[in-house]
Amino acid sequence: NMSMHLYQMSSKLFGDTVGRMNDNLTSIVLAASVITLTLGYISKMLLKQSSGKDQKYPPYIPSSIPFLGHAIAFGKSPIEFLEQAYDKYGPVFSFTMVGKTFTYLLGSEAATLLFNSKNEDLNAEDVYSRLTTPVFGKGVAYDVPNPIFLEQKKMLKTGLNIAHFKEHVKIIEAETIEYFQRWGDSGERNLFEALSELIILTASSCLHGKEIRSMLNERVAQLYADLDGGFSHAAWLLPGWLPLPSFRKRDKAHREIKNIFFKVIQKRRRSGEKVDDILQTLIDATYKDGRPLNDNEIAGMLIGLLLAGQHTSSTTSAWMGFFLARDKALQERCYAEQRAVCGDDLPPLNFDQLKDLSLLERCLKETLRLRPPIMTMMRMARSPQTAAGYTIPVGHQVCVSPTVNHRLHDTWAERMEFNPERYLNDNLAAGEKFAYVPFGAGRHRCIGENFAYVQIKTIWSTLLRMYDFDLVDGYFPTINYTTMIHTPHNPVIRYKKRKQ
Ligand code: HEM
């Protein structure tokens, strides 16, 4: 997402790094960085021990591996690691990975600290900016003081309105039908790959406008991929001045995409034509002091919009497909709902019908419970914080994990079952403010939720009308933890055209 999904795989980075150590020149630089980081870490540890003896710090999970700490166990299975720690230490605990100390706040109550905090105390830029700023560019998101970013979020939110969504439904339906033409009548294909490709197209149409969508060819798609490569563990952990090929590719892609966007923005500004879309909303928007956005800010926000919506929506849509393929009765009920709500002849979708597809909506909600794409939100403690009677010292990376909150055994009945009907019944989670937080909460909350619902519901309405889906020989994808967003492993699905 716009921000982050970032760090969770720090151990994966480490795996990568160690793996590459022997065979290239970067290894020397990497080794030097590791030594520097280690020295910094040791001096920090020494400092920590000599201060604040009367404070009660959160329970600390010991590790016998210096510096790396729990990176390997966490990287292999982060959710299991956190759940076991919860059982053993309670809702608040700390541990070290790659020289950084993480304090997790698990469960609704502990999460309150992070969601209600001020950005000056628990800071997002400190943890996200080194990843996002090279990708989105200067002047937006985590590169600017948070009050400015909040104004930018408000402008984006204005653009994500119902009038625009009504258009988006038609655009997304048409793109989906056209894209899946290549799938033919039946077969077995990689669903996640297809949805990722489709969603670049739909997100570009809906969020960037028709000019930029019309320029989206393979070359531009490659630029997006290179830019996206900037969200890497290397970028999170290693100094930005290192001459890594992936950094150079990212920076070059950034410049080229910006230039494409600048031309489109300038053309729009010059033409008298008032198109009613998000690009126009941004061109017309002003800060509270009356200053309009400049071209660089608009281009940065366009990049942010695309990337924020891309992986989050594509993984969610793919997981949803596998949950529906696994539960055929549920899939049939969703198809029946299409006919019941939209009419037996299944006419083109529209926004008002979409709202009435409540079973489909609950399926999406349940997918986001079990597979929230952002598995951890992070902040840097800039001042000492109190949670569950413990003092979290300055410098800790304070984290909340939607994935863990969404399946806490104290909160959720039959927690691992995919059951969209759970939201219709009385349930404990409904009474806990932060038990269900796939889009975050508080000042950093997502502004893309409504768009994501429109997009994913439209795609799945269209796909349910086209095909009947099955698992391939009963295989339900395992979770790939090595990607920053937890993607399905080997996501091949079986499909057959529906007889209408
Ligand atoms: C299924 C889809 C999505 C999910 C699950 C999701 C999740 C999240 C989460 C968890 C956060 C909070 C991050 C934090 O507190 O550190 C967030 C923030 C945000 N998201 Fe999304 N997102 C989704 C789609 C989108 C889309 C489509 C857009 C844009 C059109 C978007 C734009 C943003 C923005 C601008 C923020 C604000 C970051 C901040 O204030 O620090 N997201 N999202």
UniProtKB/TrEMBL annotation:
One of its GO terms (biological process) is cholesterol biosynthetic process. It is a single-pass membrane protein. The chain crosses the membrane at residues 25-47. One of its GO terms (molecular function) is sterol 14-demethylase activity. Its main location: endoplasmic reticulum. It is an enzyme of class 1 (oxidoreductase). Its cofactor is heme. Coiled coil: none annotated. It comes from the Eukaryota. Keywords: Cholesterol biosynthesis, Cholesterol metabolism, Endoplasmic reticulum, Heme, Iron, Lipid biosynthesis, Lipid metabolism, Membrane, Metal-binding, Monooxygenase, Oxidoreductase, Steroid biosynthesis, Steroid metabolism, Sterol biosynthesis, Sterol metabolism, Transmembrane, Transmembrane helix. It is found in: Endoplasmic reticulum membrane. Heme binds at C446. Pathway: Steroid biosynthesis; zymosterol biosynthesis; zymosterol from lanosterol: step 1/6. It catalyses: 24,25-dihydrolanosterol + 3 reduced [NADPH--hemoprotein reductase] + 3 O2 = 4,4-dimethyl-8,14-cholestadien-3beta-ol + formate + 3 oxidized [NADPH--hemoprotein reductase] + 4 H2O + 4 H(+); lanosterol + reduced [NADPH--hemoprotein reductase] + O2 = 32-hydroxylanosterol + oxidized [NADPH--hemoprotein reductase] + H2O + H(+); a 14alpha-methyl steroid + reduced [NADPH--hemoprotein reductase] + O2 = a 14alpha-hydroxymethyl steroid + oxidized [NADPH--hemoprotein reductase] + H2O + H(+); 32-hydroxy-24,25-dihydrolanosterol + reduced [NADPH--hemoprotein reductase] + O2 = 32-oxo-24,25-dihydrolanosterol + oxidized [NADPH--hemoprotein reductase] + 2 H2O + H(+). One of its GO terms (cellular component) is endoplasmic reticulum membrane. Its EC number is 1.14.14.154. InterPro entries: CYP450_sterol_14alpha_dmase, Cyt_P450, Cyt_P450_CS, Cyt_P450_E_grp-IV, Cyt_P450_sf. Belongs to the cytochrome P450 family. This is Lanosterol 14-alpha demethylase.
